[in-house]
Amino acid sequence: MRRDRVVPAVPAPAVTRAARRRDGGAVARAVGMVAGLAALGAGGIAAGLELERRVVGSRFRTERTPREDFFSLRSDGPPVRTSDGLDLHTEIDELADHQPAPGSGPVHPELTVVLVHGYALSLDCFHFQRKHLRGRARLVLYDQRSHGRSPRAAPETCRIDQLGDDLLAVLQQTGVSGPAVLVGHSMGGMTIMNLARRHPELFGELVGGVVLISTSPADMAEHSPIRGIPGRTFSRVVEPALALLNRVPDLVTHSRWAGSDLGFVATKQLAFGSEVPAQYVEFVSEMLGEIPLEVVGDFYPAFRDLDETGSFPVLAGVETAVIGGEDDAITPIEHTQVIIELLPGADALVLENSGHMALIEHHVQVDEVIDALLVRVARNAG
């Protein structure tokens, strides 16, 4: 078992009366910034002018990193009918249709890897993992409801229980016969935890392994991505603020991405923890920009009410790996630490200088963890 540096959990400070008195100013700041928050999924940023000049300036510098063909990996897959009648977009990379990348690792013809993306993204966020695993295992990807190429869902169905049901439908309708490895990023990890809690019979039989990346089991309402604003204050104001902004969605959408400098700076600060190539930032920014503001608001209550801690006795019965970034502004490293403590048998990788999009920012290390888990699951199935 490999265990990289693990950061000890840090308890959240108590909110004092003085802090409560300052909530009024915090609320005003939160409302003023919520358009930027909505653009980035779970929260927003306050970027200083110095940071903005540095980041936007770097965008135009000649990069040594070879250009990645983001959004280019495509394959066919059947529409998956959900319990409420939506047809989710899926893509399946069959083993026989692709050659493994040179030096990418062993082939596991018996395994199916299901990649489950996060909030305000799409299946394209697994670009590097998909490229790394193609031709080495059967891959199943899908766009969560109201995301990517999947249809818009009713707001009241945009909850984690429904996402767990959707994942179950994907497993049932895409020919997954096991052993399967489920890889979830952010909201995708929450989806997998929900499936484990509500359908424990699948784990150890159909599902042989789980990788949780930059995710959280509970207490998201305690966290604010805006420095200086307590989590409870942020949670209290963000929903009415989103509702207000939904009255002028065209204005907000345009202001989020007009000229794309604001979107670029915001994405850089909130999604990454190091000086990544500008093309990585643009890739994530483009995915975020495709999500309607209304969808951002539809899903927010799902995080406020999140509690999937009951999944861990089930997950402990299969091979697991947990990955988190020290500088994750969306699902803080303390949440990763909780998962590590609840899954003592898991491989654990805590990445320095990594934000929420670790699967892109540090894709080589993330791929290595997935590879090691695939070997273990294949060995167990042998």
Q: How is this structure best described in words?
A:
- GO terms for molecular function: hydrolase activity.
- Residues 112-362 form the AB hydrolase-1 domain.
- The chain crosses the membrane at residues 26-49.
- The structure is a single chain.
- Helices cover 42% and strands 11% of the residues.
- A hairpin with a 5-residue loop joins strand 1 and strand 2.
- It has helices spanning 17-21, 23-39, 49-59, 127-133, 160-173, 187-198, 231-245, 249-257, 261-271, 278-289, 293-304, 312-315, 333-342, 358-361, 363-381, and strands spanning 80-81, 87-88, 90-93, 112-116, 138-142, 180-185, 207-213, 319-325, 347-351.
- It starts with 16 loop residues before the first helix and ends with a helix.
- Helix 2 (23-39) packs across helix 7, helix 7 packs antiparallel against helix 11 and helix 9 (261-271) crosses helix 10 (278-289).
- The longest helix is centred in the last third of the chain and has 19 residues, at 363-381.
- It has two domains: 17-59 and 227-301, no CATH class; 80-220 and 311-381, Rossmann fold, CATH 3.40.50.
- The chain is of the alpha/beta class and 382 residues long.
- The strands form two sheets. It has a seven-stranded mixed sheet with strand order 3-5-4-6-7-8-9, with helices on both faces.
